[in-house]
Amino acid sequence: MDGKDLIYGIGFVDDKFVEEAEFVTRIKRISLSWSYYFATAACFIFVILMAKLIPNMFATPDTPLDDETTLPYQTDPVPYYPEIYQVDMGQILVNDIHGVSEGGSLYDPKSQEIVTWTMDEIVAYYGKNPVPAYIPDILAASPYNESATVLVDKSGVAVNDLVYFDFYHAYDNNGSPLSDAGSGAKIGFSVAVSKIGTTSNCVYADTNNLETTYIGDTAVIFGSMSTPYELYTAEFQYADIHYLVIAEQMQLEEVVKVVASIIFESENISIMN
User: What is the pTM of this model?
Assistant: First the structure.
């Protein structure tokens, strides 16, 4: 069949089939045209969205203008609540004493020498800061608390390591505690510390019947002397350090808080009456 035969044969095709063929062709063309435009529009929208999202994906958060500005993704700090150590005053036993004798040792210049330790050297020798964590608000540290004079042998080993720390209400121009005009006694306390055990020794009325108070796991001997004003003492050993606290014109509760702050190594002491 050649071209002439094809043209000749078309003349015998029913007009109905010709119209249907034209309709189908027209529908297909229309369908293809809408698909094309829809795909083009979708691509256009996708490009716009990516243009907006991509810069935000790699953006760096702005630096706060001041310390009070907080970024949205930061969380508030967890509050810290320090532990509070309770001491029951009903468990505190106080012994009667006659007085306090000064401790120490004789100085032999042939085999010993006097040296001055700084506070850093004191802490290094004792392995911790021996100063109480709790100091009553009305008291102040002595200017001499930052150093101590001790005895050492020729090799530098301490033979008298007794160190005093004073905390009183007032001091004179030389740094010595002032006495209260009314009672003639000082207001405050001193702490004597020693690893060797050369602290002052309290003289008790009856050393065979001493009553011991336990604060935590530490045995403490509290003492009181009959004077026109309050005078309390406390002797104990904590962390291989011997302590002697001598308090004048202080309430027993405050003395107990000072002692407990050494044992618990915290100023957060609560007294239960």
Answer: 0.69
